[in-house]
Amino acid sequence: xxxxxxxxxxxxxxxxxxxxxxxxxxxxxxxxxxxxxxxxxxxxxxxxxxxxxxxxxxxxxxxxxxxxxxxxxxxxxxxxxxxxxxxxxxxxxxxxxxxxxxxxxxxxxxxxxxxxxxxxxxxxxxxxxxxxxxxxxxxxxxxxxxxxxxxxxxxxxxxxxxxxxxxxxxxxxxxxxxxxxxxxxxxxxxxxxxxxxxxxxxxxxxxxxxxxxxxxxxxxxxxxxxxxxxxxxxxxxxxxxxxxxxxxxxxxxxxxxxxxxxxxxxxxxxxxxxxxxxxxxxxxxxxxxxxxxxxxxxxxxxxxxxxxxxxxxxxxxxxxxxxxxxxxxxxxxxxxxxxxxxxxxxxxxxxxxxxxxxxxxxxxxxxxxxxxxxxxxxxxxxxxxx
Length: 386
Description:
This protein is an alpha/beta fold. It has helices at about 45-60, 85-90, 95-115, 130-135, 165-170, 175-185, 190-195, 205-215, 225-235, 245-250, 250-260, 265-270, 280-290, 290-305, 310-325, 330-340, 355-365, 375-385, and strands spanning about 5-10, 15-25, 25-35, 65-70, 75-80, 120-125, 125-130, 140-145, 150, 185-190, 200. The strands form two sheets. It has a seven-stranded mixed sheet with strand order 1-2-3-4-6-8-11. The protein is globular, with a radius of gyration of 21 Å. The two termini are about 40 Å apart.
């Protein structure tokens, strides 16, 4: 008996995100391919809007059994959100309104992926950072490869690890999330599996075989059954000899640096570190070059956000993001790192000791003054998902 296959292009190949459907018998597999390779698949506002529309449309269809999220670029799955365009809008166009629209769209898509009733396979091959981790993290099956390179690099641009970072950094082994958030330290696929940022590591060369094999699975209309079916299928391809995690091997050193009662104690420990490990040395260097305001805010973000439910995580991070865009080191960090690329950000203040507690309180408030458009969207999504 022949299986009926039909591939449908929903969007033009010139778009920065391409949607396709493949019909297999009475079911369909939807695919989202990030197609902004010149910018390492950085996610723009229009890309978020397009992904939101397509995911919501597929969610309502009983025949769509699974969604695949990937990129064809061999170098990057997604390097993050398009913060260069965001800063340009902040400076030249609509100011804080642009930030409100961007972060509302981004966080809604991230949350939608978390609560999606159908399995989502995210193939995170290559560079996967910041906002790329945001769209990956909520997928029911998160796949990394030997090429995966991950980081939450926000402290380097005067921001904070958002896209749900309050939750996923706190779910790592004690002290690790704080370390990664404060230092922008990079980690690989083996590390990601070991610290809970990915579900399975598979050789990059297996991608085509895996995606082709999805056609042969016995899909149903039960989303939870399909999630289990996909997990079991992917486990059959898991690398049998995964390299040991460098992050886990350095756990004692990481915890000695970050399991401290205050950011001032962590700062002192990092500045006084005198070991010989190159990875930690690089991480310390990143921290010393990062925004002091961001560092103090990140410590508060993670220590006071450990037990927040996911929806509250995103709402709290929205307020933070808008306040960072209103007044902080963010614009200067993006200028120095990504626009002018002089790598010499002029942080204000330049020292951690000069960051006032009142400034941190402002960053976690609603001082930005924008009406909350995210809460009703998340509430409506939760009601239709349950």
